[in-house]
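COMPLEX REQUEST
Ligand: NAP
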Amino acid sequence: MDLGIRGKRAIVCAASKGLGRGCAEALAAEGVDLVINARGAEALDATAEAIRAAHGVSVTAVAGDIATEAGRAAVLEAAGDVDILVTNAGGPPPGIWSDWSRDDFIRALDANMLTPIALMQAVLPGMIDRHWGRVVNITSGAVRSPIPALGLSNTARTGLTGFVAGTSRQVAPDGVVINNLLPGIHDTDRATALDTGVSKAEGIDIDAARRKRQATIPARRYGTPEEFGAACAFLCSQYAGFIVGQNLLLDGGAFNSTI
Ligand code: NAP
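STATUS: Structure written out below.
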């Protein structure tokens, strides 16, 4: 299926690895030119080169922390006018409710709520002028079903979800659609880090921690960045124009509900 976005330009944040990279790869496979970002330049440059070689699109790598004003300015400057924005950043650390200080909340809000909002505020005016735009925010399944140890994530991402719920309806008349993708457990460095934490806390090896988590997922496995990227590319496609302000859960059935 041709998604009808060949020649479009996209920013994909936090994209040297994991889910962000999955989104970048899937957009590149559709002929979308990219600006990709991550803090570590070495892995980012290697990803940019791999995507260019595989898909023949233009890929500009901008190293920097997307949760900072300077990081965002560098990405936006390199990108110019864009048709597609995929927001993403690393997730906050686990803990319990009594651990977190005001500074911890501010850091989480900066990375996982205020950064995607600032990026949307920067690119939406151009999309509205050109009467076409797609925004996909990578949030978390925790928005629908809280993960108690990830209280900072639950908090920040729910705030972002509220912003998107209203804003997506304000920009839809101008051909701009904003949606959120909610990952459940996917096989990335983030999942390995969380499994490592469980293995230490419970005194079991990491394979046992992983098997334990897989057993809680009806699909009995973790999702892949490729599957996640394909869903992202569809939400960025010509066919997604009537999908407005939705929260699409990709979790192998882990969240148990009828609707
Ligand atoms: P990952 O495999 O650890 O990859 C994170 C990517 O983001 C890397 O390219 C990393 O590169 C970049 N990054 C992190 N912080 C950044 C920042 N401040 N500025 C720019 N780039 C940054 O993580 P992932 O599993 O793909 O997760 C992506 C997002 O989805 C996270 O917010 C995570 O919490 C959320 N999520 C993931 C899962 C899952 O199962 N994987 C489930 C629910 C939610 P550098 O380190 O070099 O910057």
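REMARKS: The chain has two domains: 9-184+224-249, 186-222. The mean pLDDT is 97.
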